[in-house]
Amino acid sequence: MKVFDGVKIVARAEHKDSVDQRYRPVLGPGIEFFEVPYYLGPWQYARVWRRVRKAVRSAVADDDAVLCRVGSRLATDLLPMLWKTGRPYGLEVVGDPSEGFAPRAVKHPLRPVFRYLFTRSLKQECSRASAVSYVTEHALQQHYPARDAAISFSASDVELCDDSFVPLARVFITPLSGGFPHEHKLQTPDKGTRPRLVFVGSLAQMYKAPDVLIRAISLLHKKGFPVWLSIIGDGRHRRELEDLTRSLSVDSRVTFCGQLQAGAAVRKKLDEATLMVMPSRTEGLPRALVEAMARALPCVGTKVGGIPELLDAEDLVTPNDADGLADKLQEVLTDPERLTRMSASNLAKAQRYRIEVLEEKRRKFYRYLRNATEKRLANGKFSSDFSDAPPLVDEAFQ
After folding, report:
1. What does each C-alpha distance from 190 to 196, 199, 233 come to in angstroms?
2. Which whole-number Å values give the CA distances from 231 to 201, 209, 378, in the listed order?
3. Residue 88: closest CA among 391, 376, 314
4. Do the beta carbons of residue 72 and residue 89 sit within 8 Å?
5. How far apart are CA 57 and CA 314, in angstroms?
6. HEC secondary structure over 376-387
7. 98, pLDDT greater than 60
8. Whole-number pLDDT of residue 149
9. What is the number of other CB atoms lying within 10 angstroms of the CB of residue 281?
10. Closest to 278 (Cα-Cα) out of 234, 243, 241, 328
11. Which is more confidently placed, 316 or 305?
12. How many angstroms separate the CA atoms of 185 and 175, rounded?
């Protein structure tokens, strides 16, 4: 709203009798909503795709600047229509469909087809965009490049305010050997006596690989190295994961906390933990990991998406490798000085994701998109009549 005259939000809308109190209303002058028929997954989409396309294109006026968050089914419906009219548009790239539809990330018989189509589609969308903003600094840019480096921006969708950071009263300076004389460390004396791991992520899909983490816990248990795990998040795979903990005899060491309200409730769990683990199969730039880093929490993650941009190479493991993850967890948890270094490094890196830092990056992107749209309008109006638009990239598949 600091750059544009108004904002139209075009999104799927599901009608409910009551509103989840964890949701935050987005209302106010200059904000409009355009409802798209609700669907979930490819089969539901197949039943309503004509109505979806009509709703999306009816929302776009001649003098609108168009910004799409991708990968998105709605963007894939709209963008070929913009290509026909030569209309400028901007993209926010938040994930990698090649990783999102990788083996074991999604259980679907058509997974390889979706992976091919969505990866190809995103590459095409980025190559034709007027400006592209990526949530990562390098990872997504390499796989889905903009047509010109000058129109490529990097601005995470993770924002941290002062409340997100660990209070200074809970951090002290401790002298260490090995060239690290001044490091931050959390004042939690009980952490060394009972290693507590924390995992934060949706259980609706297996993108975050909680199953791999549970298997790693089992391997450590068999080696006589006890750790305890709290899983924050919920979804349709929860019962399957609970069954897995029982079958591996680690159900007494794994606690399913369910969905917690964002903010204080999650921060409390992070502050109680010794180590945050993100064993993801796919990622953009993970919000939960950045929030854990802001609490000065040591973290271990996989070499996917934007995670290598956040964590040091020595704190990374290969995805889908329970043995390697178990070894890394034991290696880190038995080295107090390393935990302290990780804590300090993570707290420092998290400063890059403060609201005031990211807002200016986004504003430059929005200004570029507005200027590109105004310039094109000054040269002659483009039409929003999409009746003769070319077919979708994957129309034949539909």
Report:
1. 10, 19, 25
2. 8, 12, 54
3. 376
4. no
5. 48
6. HHHCCCCCCCCC
7. yes
8. 65
9. 23
10. 328
11. 316
12. 10
Q: What token pair was written down for 325?
A: 């993850």
pLDDT tens for residues 275-290? 999 999 988 888 899 9
Q: How many residues does the chain have?
A: 398
Contact between 200 and 295 (Cβ < 8 Å): no
Secondary structure string (H, E, C) spanning 166-189: CCHHHEEEECCCCCCCCEEEECCH
DSSP one-letter string for 274-310 = SEEEE--SS-SS-HHHHHHHHTT--EEEESSTTHHHH
The 10 Å CB-count burial string (b at 16+, else e) for 14-49 is eeeeeeeeeeeeeeeeeeeeeebbebeeeeebeeeb
Is 17 strand, coil or helix? coil
DSSP 38: -
Residue 183 has pLDDT above 50, yes or no: no
* CB burial string 246-271: b at 16+ within 10 A, e below: eebebeebbbbbebbeeeeebbebbb
Structure tokens at 268: 């409390």
The C-alpha atoms of residue 287 and residue 201 are separated, in whole angstroms, by 10
Q: Burial of 196 by CB count in 10 Å (0-12 exposed, 13-18 middle, 19+ buried)?
A: middle
> How many CB atoms are closer than 10 A to CB 324?
16
Cα(372)–Cα(356) distance, rounded to whole angstroms? Answer: 25
Q: Are strands 90-93 and 67-70 parallel, antiparallel or unpaired?
A: parallel
Could you check whether the bond before residue 41 is cis, i.e. omega within 30 degrees of 0? Answer: no
Q: What is the average pLDDT value for the chain, to the nearest integer?
A: 85
Contact (Cβ atoms closer than 8 angstroms) between residue 328 and residue 317: yes
Give the CA distances from residue 354 to residues 162, 265, 290, 348, 364, in Å, rounded to whole numbers and listed in that order: 8, 20, 10, 11, 16
The DSSP string of 210-251 is: HHHHHHHHHHHHHTT---EEEEEB--TTHHHHHHHHHHTT-T
Q: Are 186 and 193 in contact (CB under 8 A)?
A: no
